[in-house]
Amino acid sequence: MYGLSLSFGLKLLLLIVLFLLIIFLFNYIMSKTLKADRRKLFSDFHINEKHKMIDWTLRIITMVCLLLIFPFNMDETKSYWFLQPWIILSLFLFVSEIVRAVMERKYAENPNAYKLTLSQLIFVIIMAFTLFKTDFWGLL
What we know:
Blueprint: H1 8-34, H2 49-74, H3 85-107, H4 113-133
Helix pairs in contact: 1-4, 2-3, 3-4
């Protein structure tokens, strides 16, 4: 009756696995190409104490912003796109990776470390953009 279509959950799982696999392969290839060390996924690695202080300052500012925008998001009649939590979190991730690249450029032992960080950031932005523009690659 419904054919051979996959359920939404299976399609979402397939999309997430495919997305992560593509990013992993890109990171692996770029780290080998640039001869830069790969960071562990979800690592809290800081270049130095200055980077750690800046990163934690950004995290605290992000959390305060998320708490402050909460009342604005309660009113469904007035919805501001720039006050959406996913916009704030995306901005935090972007700024955080830019700060990491700058710190790697100035202080890292490997001169190619910042290139890896910037290439990863650009690739993830391109991947996310293509996901949304192609309706999640037609999977959802």
